[in-house]
């Protein structure tokens, strides 16, 4: 049970940018239960990596295998099974339904595949301080609140790997601590790997492996 | 199990409900019209066709050449080539000449009924006779000649007999009579005992066995191969346009009522067909209108549908689930159409309550068509949704 990257290089990336990378063009394995910190400055392809792993883009050479499935060749059904049971993600652009209520944004994920051990939506939203926003359209929430909705949504499903793409960029320290604690708690329940991708190393996160993109 | 209502808020359905209802109403109107059209065809067939159809499903119709001022002097009988040409027509199953006597034939019933008259005798292939008893055959030397008498003639006789001081006759009495039949001609005179063995509703004539008439025409009339003035045809397409056109073109004549009925049936069939085509167009327009609605729905919900796929919803599930939402609508619309068909049939039946051929229950063809329409609508709906979602 692992994610295996083999000689992965975005087709558009200049070759000099791959020379010092520990990811592009190399062999890399993400194992279940471990924590990974991937850091890189802007424009190094952090979000591209997330999209490659999640199967949203295929403009790369090399291979990505998630639990033996070649992600670039996966069928629609395999992709949906991976996204609802194996891989969960907090996207940098959040990918929320902006005109729908916070509750609807969360329920739509919960309905797909609920994880029996997870806290309830009410409990999670209370812990991250957005319970009062439940019946408010996402577009009327601040970006920080929207980030917390996206974090909770990612935790409402079973997963072996949790990818976090700059998940705390608009959160104050107090909310970062709360969100981080909730993430760690839910990931440990699933014995899942956490792949944190950010500009800088997070002071709250103690990874098993630090990787420079 | 994920329900459709989970994703319903994410399908952007801003189109007015009334316009969607209009599409359903159009579909209902089209389905009802089409079902009623099929039912009309069945009803017309029953009302116009079956009266003269025998048990084998064919009609037996006498035809003769139309006598006009122009052809009055010439021989308007059918020769072998004429009959062969008639038989060649694809809508005519068989044809047989009705041969008449070429000698003088006189019958009298003896002392019981003091009645004597010249009559005409005819013979036709046995296959064209509707009531053919086993006794209807004759061999040379046989004194008794079996006769099949027209039921119409008996009816006419019974109407006029009292006025002539003659007794009215029942079918049984007529069959019990032994009639004297005298045949005279250039070949001499012979006497026979005629015995009525059956009455025919189909052939208005006095029929004798083919073998007897062949013998008498040759020996008494000295005309072994007479031509026929009437030909009986066997067909299952008596009201078809081809048949009527063929008769007109060939200068042939049938009973005017039959011909008029055929023309009326032709006109009604064309009118009903036009309504049927209109109904199909209405159904197609309704399906197209629903197709446009689906396109609009998917176009407006494109971002949301893409996001649902990102979250882990599968295309296959979305296609199946969204398609299924229209199944009850198609079923309800078609069931309403069938209910209206029942009402139509009851009203139609009330207009023709004296005709026993009609039934209150609609035709099985109309009901099968209703099922077919549901399946077509569902398949088309699923195809449209699949095509639209494949592009998301």
Give a quick precis of the structure.
With 213 residues, chain A is an alpha/beta fold.
Keyphrases for this structure?
heterodimer; A: 213 residues; alpha/beta; Rossmann fold; five-stranded parallel beta sheet; four-stranded antiparallel beta sheet; 7 helices; 22% strand; globular; B: 392 residues; alpha+beta; six-stranded mixed beta sheet; five-stranded antiparallel beta sheet; 12 helices; 11 strands; 17% strand; elongated
Structure in words:
The complex is a heterodimer of chains A (213) and B (392). Chain A has 7 helices and 9 strands. Chain A is α/β, with parallel strands linked by helices and 213 residues long. Chain A has one domain (34-58, 83-212): P-loop containing nucleotide triphosphate hydrolases (Rossmann fold). In chain A, the strands form 2 sheets. Chain A has a 5-stranded parallel sheet. In chain A, strands 2-1-4-5 form a 4-stranded antiparallel sheet, covered by helices on one side. The model of chain A has no long low-confidence stretch (mean pLDDT 92). Chain B has 2 domains: 4-51 and 261-390, no CATH class; 59-235, no CATH class. Chain B has a 6-stranded mixed sheet. In chain B, strands 5-2-10-1-11 form a 5-stranded antiparallel sheet. Chain B starts with a helix and ends with a helix. Classes of the chains: A alpha/beta (213), B alpha+beta (392). At the A-B interface, helix 3 and helix 4 of A face helix 9 and helix 10 of B.
